């Protein structure tokens, strides 16, 4: 029995009715394993995930988990199934020092050859000149050794330059980035340490947390809109546009350009009720399991417990299958999954 079988009722409900579907007994194989959100807590905000061999590694923003785990300078988690995660260590032994103060936010990790490159934001709330840095490790769990600033906001000419995403295309290296002052793309030097190309604007001022995914001849630009960090009042949600070209223009299903500052096809939003989730967003890289199902990791805050005792936003790690309907991605129901669901399939 393929994993896709259990998704069919949800696809029908999502696209062909405006009412809630009746309870359905979903057939699954006898050896199917199940999981339930969240897949890691208390905190893994702004996640990035990579696969190395048969293992997965996830990285999250610098945070203080207080009495639920203490301070972490970019947490590194490990899993063999995307469901069961174990904390390994902090990515850094010491904080980078090319800014006098700030947090290390939104790490983006990619394997480049035999190395692991982490692009990260260095910023404070309201920082007039945040920047993006690069750190490199010899192993996925680190330690990551800082290589310094790639650029500052004032240097690159884009306010609030945070939330980096690295990709390689036709032997060239690129960085996408931005936070509510446009999403941008630039070419990087061969060593990845400096921007060398002109900056190209990909989306308007309504998005941050850029992620670009290639599928079936399209580039899909994911971004998060709304507020990320207001606990139960957070309005974060994930939108997407697509283009035949890396540099755009990216459009939604209706053909509206993401550059207009309000467009984007909805992938995921918050939910209400006893198991409601506020502010789901800042998705990680899409991972495909061994039955061809795509999976989306992202953070969100449960309405029942949106903050830690110390006031930190309790941005737990959530996982849901990503559906592709007529060339457009969406989580079932466009809200975080709840209850038990069939888990990703990977060889043990």
Automatic annotation (TrEMBL):
The keyword Lyase does not apply. The keyword Cytoplasm does not apply. Keywords: Glycosidase, Hydrolase. Pathway: Glycan metabolism; L-arabinan degradation. InterPro entries: GH43_arabinanases, Glyco_hydro_43, Glyco_hydro_beta-prop_sf. Signal peptide: none annotated. It holds the Pfam family Glyco_hydro_43. Belongs to the glycosyl hydrolase 43 family. PANTHER family: ARABINAN ENDO-1,5-ALPHA-L-ARABINOSIDASE, ARABINAN ENDO-1,5-ALPHA-L-ARABINOSIDASE A-RELATED. This is Family 43 glycosylhydrolase. It comes from Algoriphagus oliviformis.
């Amino acid at each position: 029995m393929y994993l896709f079988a259990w998704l069919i009722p949800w696809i029908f409900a999502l696209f062909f009715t405006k009412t809630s579907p009746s309870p359905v007994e979903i057939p699954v194989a006898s050896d199917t394993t199940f999981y339930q959100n969240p897949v890691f807590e208390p905190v893994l905000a702004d996640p990035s995930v990579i696969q190395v061999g048969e293992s997965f590694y996830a990285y999250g923003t610098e945070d203080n988990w207080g009495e639920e785990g203490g301070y972490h300078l970019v947490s590194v988690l490990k899993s063999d199934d995307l469901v069961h995660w174990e904390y390994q260590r902090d990515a850094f032994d010491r904080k980078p020092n090319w800014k006098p103060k700030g947090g290390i936010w939104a790490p983006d990790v990619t394997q480049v050859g035999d190395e692991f490159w982490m692009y990260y934001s260095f910023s404070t709330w309201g920082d007039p000149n945040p920047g993006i840095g690069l750190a490199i490790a010899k192993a996925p769990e680190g330690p990551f050794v800082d290589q310094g600033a790639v650029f500052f906001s004032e240097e690159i000419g884009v306010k609030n330059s945070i939330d980096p995403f690295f990709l390689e295309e036709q032997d060239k290296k690129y960085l996408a980035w931005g936070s509510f002052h446009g999403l941008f793309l630039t070419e990087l030097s061969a060593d990845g340490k400096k921007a060398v190309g002109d900056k190209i604007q990909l989306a308007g001022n309504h998005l941050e947390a850029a992620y670009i995914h290639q599928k079936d001849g399209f580039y899909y630009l994911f971004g998060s809109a709304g507020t990320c960090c207001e606990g139960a009042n957070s309005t974060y949600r994930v939108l997407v546009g697509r283009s035949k070209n890396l540099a755009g223009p990216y459009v939604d299903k209706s053909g509206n350009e993401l550059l207009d500052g309000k467009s984007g096809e909805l992938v995921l939003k918050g939910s209400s009720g006893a198991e409601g989730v506020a502010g789901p967003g800042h998705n990680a890289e899409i991972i495909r399991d061994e039955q061809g199902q795509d999976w989306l990791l992202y953070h969100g805050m449960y309405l029942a417990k949106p903050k830690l005792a110390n006031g930190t936003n309790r941005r737990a790690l959530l996982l849901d299958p990503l559906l592709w309907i007529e060339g457009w991605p969406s989580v079932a129901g466009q809200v975080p999954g709840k209850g038990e669901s069939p888990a990703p399939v990977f060889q043990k």
